[in-house]
Amino acid sequence: MHAKQPFARRILLAFVLMTIVVSGLFSLSIVAVVHLVEEHLVSQEMHRELREVLTVDLRKDKAPRLDAGMYFFSSQYPGYAIPEEYSRLPEGFTELVDADQAFYVYKINSAGHTHMLVQKQDEFEARENILFGVVLAGFLLAVLGAWGLGLGMARKVMAPVRRLAQQVRHRDQLHALAPALAPDYPDDEIGQLAAAFDSTLGQVRDSLERERLFTSDVSHELRTPLMIIASSCELLAEAPLAAREQEQLARIARASEEMRELVQTFLQLARDKRHAMAGAEAPLASVAAQQMQRWAAFMAAKGLDFQCIQEGTDSGLYNATLLGAVMSNLLRNALHYTEKGGVRLILESGGFRVEDSGAGIPAGQQERVFQAFVRGVQARGEGLGLGLSLVKRICTQQGWHIALHSEEGLGTCMRVTLKQSV
Fold this sequence. Notes:
The protein is an alpha+beta fold. About 55% of the residues lie in helices and about 15% in strands. Mean pLDDT is about 80; it is low at about 380-385.
C-alpha cells in the first residue's frame, strides 16, 4: 500500500513534474532542431562547394579553392586520394567525431568516381556545446524555479485548508453557541467544505441534544415512581410478613435501589462533563466497601469466594455515583460469568481491578465486549449487553482508562485506572 503524501506535497510534486516534462520536451526540441538545421545547412553548403570544385577549379586544372580547415579527396584525380577511414562512408552528408576532433564529410558518386569534401567543425562543435550547456542550465533553473514557485503556491493554496482544520481542531464545535465556519471563507471549494462541515455538525449537535434531553427527561420522570416504590418497601418491611414475602420484598427493594443508581448515572452522563463533577465525591475505599456489602450475599449464594484486597493506598476523591456504577457493573459481570472459584476486588494506588476465575473471553471477542448490545458466547442472566458499554462511556467521560486481560478458561481481569476530580 502506497504511503499517503500530504496534499501540499502532492501539489508541489505535480507542479515540479509538469515543469520537468514541459521544460524537458522544450530542451530536447531545441537540440533536435539544432541538429536538423546543422545537417541541412552544412550539407547544402558543402554540396555547392564540391560541385564548384569539380566543375570550375579542376576543369581549369586549378587547385581547389577551399576555406581553411576544408579538404578535397577524389578517386579520379591524382594527389587527392581518399583516406582509408573515409572510403566506406555512405553517400551524402556525414558527421564524424574522432577523439577530440569532429568533421563534416560530404560524399558524391559521379561517373564511377567518388568525390568528397571534409571540413573540420571544432569551432562549431564548441559553440554547439555552449548552446547545449545553456539549454541544460535553463532546464535546471526552470526546475528549481518551479520548485520554489510550487512551494509558494502550495502554501498559499493550503493556507485556508490549514486555517479551517485549526478552527475545527481548537473550537468547541459541539457547543451550541459555537459560531459557524462558512462565513469566514469565500464562496469557493473551501467555503463549500466549511458549509458542509457546519451542516453536518448541526445535525450532530441536534442528535446529541435530543439524546441528552431524552436521557435527562426519562431519568427525571423515573425518580418519582422509584421514590414511591422505595417508600412502599420501607412501609411493608414494618408489617409482619412471611419469610417468602420478606425475600420478595427485599428483591424489590434491591431492584429499586439499582434502578435509582442507574437513573442517577444516566443523569450524570447526560450532563456536560464540567457539570458531571458536581455530584458527591468519595474515596475509592469507601465506594469499594459499599459494593462489597451489596454484592457479598449474591456471591455467597452462588458459592463464590468474594474478597476485597488492598494492594495500595489511594487518597483521591471521585464521583461516587459514576465510580460505583463502574465497579458495580464489573462485579455483576464477574458474578454472571463465574461458576466456581472466586471474585476479587483489588484496590490499587490510582485505580482498582476486578479478577474472576470464570470462563474468560475469547481473544477474537475482547475488543467487542465494550460495544453496546454485545454479549459473550456464554451469556448469563437476562442482560442486554449494556453493562460494559456503560462502563466504557463513564470511563471515557471521566478520563479514566479501562483495560481487559483475559484467557479463555482461565478467567478475566478488568483494570480501571482512575483520574482524580479537578
